[in-house]
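Data availability (excerpt). The following record was deposited with the supplementary files.
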Amino acid sequence: MELLALAIPFFLLLMGMEYYFSTQKGKKYYKFTDTVSNLSIGIFDRLCGLIFAGSFYFVYQFLHKHFALFTINQHYWQWILLFVLVDFLWYWYHRFSHTVNIFWAQHVVHHSSTEFNFAVGTRITIFQSFVRMLFWCILPVVGFPAEMILGILAIHGAYSFFTHTRTIGKLGFLEKIIVTPSHHRVHHASNEEYIDKNYGGFFIVWDKLFGTFAEEKEAVVFGLTTPLKSKSFLWQLFHLWVHLYFEFKSKINSAEKLKIVFGKPVLLSKKTQILAEKRFLSAKAVGKISTLFKKYVVFQMALSLVCITFLIYFWNYLNVSTQIFSSLLLIITLVNCGAVMEQLSWVFDLELFRGLILLVYLSYDFPETFAINTFVALLALTFYTYIKEQYFSYYLLPTNKVGKTN
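Predicted structure:
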């Protein structure tokens, strides 16, 4: 846990260096709302990792104990073999995640960013981890112990972070063997000739063997072919699930419904996407963001990064109530950042709910504060309207009215 906690400031340092050197060259590789969205999803993934990481170990250990076909010891060549197998399975997981809707629904989150930088490398979700596990479950059955598998997965996952950058050009001979930033830029492109190319995680040879390789030749346009219309944390995570629901609901017979679930993303219609957006997104376009507005979101993101680092480092030492309340407060804060950026009408109610949750936690773990916490809560509810008016007038641009959801 300690090493994972230390990894967060290390990755943040790399992002800072990338931002600095890119701006020195006059390149705008980072955008405010996009970066906040990327970090929010990354923080959520790390939080979910704390909660569910033990389940992955349990599954691999159970399969190894009861179904292992061979006994594999931890010799160096077996570690190398495991790394190759992990990367091979990654290729097929990754390929299916782009060609099967139910898998694409969890992987599309990683591709929704319109930028390409180290922050995008953090843009993964726990849903992806569960799908990957389905592919990697063959490894303990072959005979690899859970400890070996999780160790290699950590190394393999860390490498992929470094391929998400535009500051590194082509790497000569290495381009023929391993996945480089150039290869992965192609993978994140929405250019027609680059779509569904370069699925490899570490070795690019799988793409060359199975006919999915493309070299970076022309300027890359990053993101989805149809960019998302919202930077909302919730919409970033669940937009395609909503789209799939509307599409599934529009089909009459079972065969068509199954085709939507297990078919290719190209089968999804623009009509149902528009219906989903109309139902869940604000009809108002968000205007220019003020400096004060940015500072508020930056403060919340900084607090969230400190919180997730603290939780990772001390998770095993915290009592259950602190784990639950801290996780809930962190998730609400991430949702709040997205809602504030979209200037949605319910953002203040979410702010108030977050405050009440904090007071409940303090009253639960520190009973001596119950009286003052109750007084503060009653005061906030009594002056709800006034506080709400002050909130919106202070944080939002005067020229922008608060967006409303349908």
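Summary of structural features: The chain is about 65% helix and 0% strand.
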